[in-house]
Amino acid sequence: MFHLSNKDISGQVLKKQIANPESGACVIFEGWVRNHNEGKPVSSLEYEGYPELCVSEAETIFKEAQKRFSIEKIICSHRVGHLEIGGMAVWLGVTARHRGSAFEACRYIIDQIKFRLPIWKKEFYEDGEVQWVNCQECAKHGHAHSHSMVDFQEKKTFNAYYKRQMVLPQMGVSGQEKLSESRVLVVGAGGLGCAALQYLVGAGIGHISICDDDTVDISNLHRQPLYGFDDLNLSKAELAAEQLRRLNPMVHIKVWNERITANNVQNIMQGCDLVLDCTDNFTTKYLLNDAAWLMKIPYVFAGLYQWEGQLMVVHPSQGDSGCLRCLWPKIPDQETMGTCAQVGILGGIAGTLGAMQSVEAIKLLMGNKPSSNLVIHDFLNNDRLNLERIKDPDCPLCGSSPTITEIVGSAYETNISRYPWEYDQSRIATSKKKFLLTDISEFFELENSLPPHVLHMPYSRIINEEGSLGTDQNYLFICSKGIKSKMLTFALREKGIKNVYSFIGGWNQYR
């Protein structure tokens, strides 16, 4: 809301109008009449404005700000008429969920108002001289305005910011302009996403969407450098957007503060030139792979497992190398592998893979032919393996007779397989077997002392020391949620160790 006022502006009244219980920040700018200008003593001011164009242009500026920043409400009042020294000439208030967005939007709006609104100022000097001072870039009739100075400054900033990468012969000005016009969706603002987003924004991808419904946990901070201790329990997507706008205000960032699902994936992907998969679970990865293929959008995949990272590009228009389902047709059971939270990850590995995703994305957006390899990095042994991918003619998504032709929600329900060696409370009660309940948490994961009847043997010791388990009893492994115990039992049984079992659901389900 913008209006010109020929009466004194009441900041208290406007502050009440902009109050919003959903907002976490309100930034207010007040412009006052000062008693000097460029060394000359000023006694008073007088403002005149073109009301219709002022309101129209201000609303345009407000819409621009709402696209660039995650803000919720804007109110601006500008005085016209005669003002004495100390009088309030302009009041601007901006509310947002987070302070960074409110600060940046407030500065952007007031700068644009100064440049673009048709408001003129008459200065009365103490020596009796009177002088009209035009706005620097006033909007003209017909809703068109001169951007010559603004365009020059923005172009100068553009060239200075990107000059190190525009020197690359493969990039140049034309390549940089391609990036500035591109639209990229990044799903996941965790370890992979934090690195990928910083380099995409730094490279000047013009429009970036961030999709993540998670909040910051203290265990994220070692590998997610966009967040800090002060950000715990706050939205990752919103915080990432704030930080990235500070890194490069020339990039437009949109936030989808929600979990991507079969119901919203196509809406969120709509209009994107490319999708980066920075997630950490199989179901979402398959959903993104399938939706991107059906919508003919290139898809950059990365996966992490302890010291290992995987990277590949799926490009529907160059489909000789196929898609994710050509390698693994069905969604695996998440509980047999585990996420970073369950199996661990080094921050630098997540950052390295995320940075590599950004490089692949930039090459694609510049028009380079995508790689057809699946690249596997073993960071522990510093090995790299390039595997050429070949399209599977029987692939259910991209094969000659595909069975996946649309996104159906039931196809992406969590796949949880139950094995004969998994036990819950009721099955234990009816079983003739006797079990030694064994907590496999690491020492640093234990929050409370264990009951006397529970043995403690850390996962790391069992998996690394073949003889750590006896052969004269049945071990029933238990952990916090039942995921690590299932993974461990599965791995040991694959090695031929049959006296190990897993408790379903972990301590959350144990009575």
Record the SSE blueprint.
Blueprint lengths: L1 E4 L5 H8 L6 E8 L3 E2 L2 E10 L1 H18 L2 E9 L1 E4 L3 E9 L2 H18 L2 E7 L4 E4 L14 H19 L5 H9 L2 E5 L3 H13 L3 E5 L24 H12 L4 E5 L8 H5 L4 E4 L4 H13 L4 E7 L2 E7 L9 H4 L12 H4 L3 H19 L7 E6 L4 E6 L33 E2 L1 H6 L4 E5 L15 E2 L2 H6 L9 E5 L4 H12 L5 E4 L8
Parallel strand pairs: 1-5, 10-11, 10-13, 11-12, 13-14, 18-22, 19-20, 19-21, 21-22
Antiparallel strand pairs: 2-7, 3-4, 4-6, 4-8, 5-7, 8-9, 14-15, 15-16, 16-17
Helix pairs in contact: 2-3, 6-7, 6-12
User: How many domains make up the 3D coordinates?
Assistant: 3
Q: Enter the CATH topology name of the largest domain.
A: Rossmann fold
Tell me the Rg in angstroms.
Answer: 30 Å
How far apart, in Å, are the first and last alpha carbons?
Answer: 58 Å
Percent of residues in helices: 25-40%
| Uncertain stretches | 135-150
CATH homologous superfamily classification of the largest domain: NAD(P)-binding Rossmann-like Domain
Q: Characteristics of this structure?
A:
single chain, alpha/beta, Rossmann fold, 3 domains, eight-stranded mixed sheet, five-stranded antiparallel sheet, 15 helices, elongated
Question: Please, could you describe this protein's structure?
Answer:
- It contains 15 helices and 22 strands.
- Helices cover 32% and strands 23% of the residues.
- With 511 residues, the protein is an alpha/beta fold.
